Amino acid sequence: MLRLINLAVIGALVLAAAWVYEIKYSSTRQAERVAKLRAEIRRERDTIAALRAEWAQLDNPDRIQILARRHLTLKPIEPTQFDTLERLPDKPIDIVPPGTADPIAALIEIMVDPEVVTNGVTDPEASQ
Amino acid sequence: MSVAQVIASERPVGPTRRRLVHRLLYGRNVDRSAKTRARIALAIAAFATVYAVIALRLVLFAVAPESHAARRTGSQDAVATARPDILDRNRQVLATDVRMPSLFGEPRKVIDVDEATELLTAVLPDLDSGEVRERLGSKRGFVWLKREIKPQQQHEIHRLGIPGVGFLSENKRVYPNGAEVSHLIGHVNIDNQGIAGIEKWLDDRGLADLHRAGFASDRQQTPIELAVDLRVQHALRDELIAAAEKFKAKAAAGLVVDVNTGEIISMVSVPDYDPNNPRQANDPTRINRLTTGVFELGSTFKALTVAMALDSGKITLNSSFDARVPLRYGKFNISDYHAQRRIMTVPEIFTYSSNIGTARMALALGVEHHKWFLRKVGQLDRLRTELPESAEPLVPKRWGELNTVTIAFGHGLSVAPLQAVMGINALVNGGYLIPPTFMKRSEQEARALATQVIRPETSEKMRYLFRLNAEKGTANKADVKGFYVGGKTGTSEKVVGGRYSKTKLLTTFTAVMPCDKPRYQVLIMLDEPQPLKETHGYATSGWNAAPTAGKVIARIAPLLGLEPRFELPPAERLILARGQ
């Protein structure tokens, strides 16, 4: 009985030792990975910063102005070129409702409809 | 059992516990099974202690996560300290850190100096081989070989595998916009410490202490957002450079300020310098004229005098003053530049920029009132902003009536232009004196800081006086149609050798837009502009600073989100409509 317990305890000890060993190594691996990722993040961040700096340099208004003067025919905007949305004329009314299958046919139909004929045109049937 | 009892009785009696242990472990007469149990218990206790120590150690390792790998990467940088990025109000980068590798050598570890030198100079052709050989041959532990090399070069040198040569990455401050915002953000020295402008302010705010303590080597710091708008800054600078060139001025300076919040949207003083090459900054002609220089601003000050008069309640827009003859004061003779030689009302005095009229206005209220008012609008004390550079106004020590007479039209009191801008802001924004700032600020925050210095009604009158001046006064060349610009010209003679010079002028122009509900103020200042053929030989403000301001406004108003409006009535009718 005692021997059996002893054997079980020894077995548990070996297992525990193996388990601890495994944990230790996996934690070392994890730590190394963390350090590596950290270094990578740092490098990425540095690269981003460098690229942002370069972008800002390329985006510098002074440089853009020189390029625009050389390559574009655009001119600085004048105050008279501004207008407000309120002063925009109204959108023309649709004669034909949108989504009609044959808009031209619908248009002709509306034109010949006696009710929309204006005063200027006399209805030949009515005058008879 | 009986034998054991006999032997036990023969033994001498010692301290009970010791005897018990001794007997249990070694006693021949002790029962075997009891002995075994005691031994097992001892073994269990010993193992338990060992396991407890191991467990404790594991817990300690888990609590302190510092590993060797982390420490190894940490030692590669942290040479030069990091600084937060500086952004403009639209989050455009004004200043940022870029990490640059630097090449160093450890001469004691170098095996073959000649070979190392040869290999290094092959990769870095601009390296002086004699110098490298001398440095690597020295007995020192550490030598810099080259600061700030390219990543590509670092890679190549790394590939060579020269012993005793290594890299350290350092933070280098770069200003991608070059001279565009130089005076505003300032610059840093080789060790990344701020020595001027906003950079210095950052250090004074605690960054320097962080650096000294060894923190802040990473770029994980929240960026600083300034109130400045890079696009406006560029437009202003571009126009100022053009104006300085056209009028052959020694220097030019400009400011754009939000009237309601005190935010400085743009500040330019040319000639300026490139903060990436800060050596130029020491040149005294490149100082920031707007904060570190004090000037007699001339007629611009008349706006303050007129506001004081209207705010006193004793003088109204209908009051009139005698400007028929020059005002004699002691041996001084005060005359008008645009002399009308008649009795003028307050709006006429303002639009014709009459020295006599404003002097009489100030005299009518008395010296003490004048002094009190100027102190109230912040013209007599040093103005402090985030910038470390500031200048004390030059106030006359004994302030008599003559001083009041001359200060009324802007001579005899030198102030920093930024200070005058703050005062004029208060005249048009409803009477709130708001300290200017380079940081972003909302209208509510500004209101909390503001002090009411003139009545809102007076402020309203001042707006229309400014507008009137642009419609029919000296400021008409700055009137950009559609933005309802108002303004005041100012021309002062510079003091040369203790006397006012007739040819060396300082011209300023203060513009307010839009005048019915002001949002921005623009100040333009030209130092010693020369008369041109197209200005008909004049070098006064209305001929150079005012048109420059007009050009600036036409460019920046759309950027600032101002809509042009053409239906606004002329100012004169508005004054009449609102009563006096």
Précis, in short:
The complex is a heterodimer of chains A (about 130) and B (about 575). Chain A is mainly α and about 130 residues long.
Any chance you could write out the topology, listing elements then pairs?
The complex is a heterodimer of chains A (128) and B (580).
Chain A: H1 2-59, H2 61-71, H3 103-112, H4 124-127
Chain B: H1 2-10, H2 16-26, H3 32-63, H4 68-74, E1 86-87, E2 93-105, H5 113-123, H6 129-137, E3 143-146, H7 151-160, E4 165-174, H8 182-185, H9 197-213, E5 224-225, H10 230-246, E6 251-258, E7 264-270, E8 295-296, H11 302-312, E9 320-322, E10 327-329, E11 332-334, E12 343-345, H12 346-351, H13 355-365, H14 367-376, H15 401-408, E13 414-415, H16 417-428, E14 432-433, H17 443-449, E15 451-452, H18 456-472, E16 486-496, E17 499-513, E18 520-527, H19 545-559, H20 571-577
Parallel strand pairs in B: 1-5
Antiparallel strand pairs in B: 1-2, 2-3, 2-4, 6-7, 6-18, 8-13, 9-12, 10-11, 14-15, 16-17, 17-18
Helix pairs in contact in B: 5-6, 10-19, 11-13, 11-18, 13-15, 18-20
Question: Can you put this structure into words, describing what you see?
Answer:
Chain A is an all-alpha fold and 128 residues long. Helices cover 65% and strands 0% of the residues of chain A. Chain A contains 4 helices and no strands. The mean pLDDT of chain A is 83. Chain B is an alpha+beta fold and 580 residues long. Chain B folds into 3 domains: 62 residues, no CATH class; 107 residues, Penicillin-binding protein 2a (Domain 2) (Alpha-Beta Complex); 337 residues, 3-Layer(aba) Sandwich (Beta-lactamase), CATH 3.40.710. In chain B, the strands form 6 sheets. In chain B, strands 1, 2, 3, 4 and 5 form a 5-stranded mixed sheet that branches. In chain B, helix 5 packs antiparallel against helix 6. Chain B is elongated and about 135 Å long.
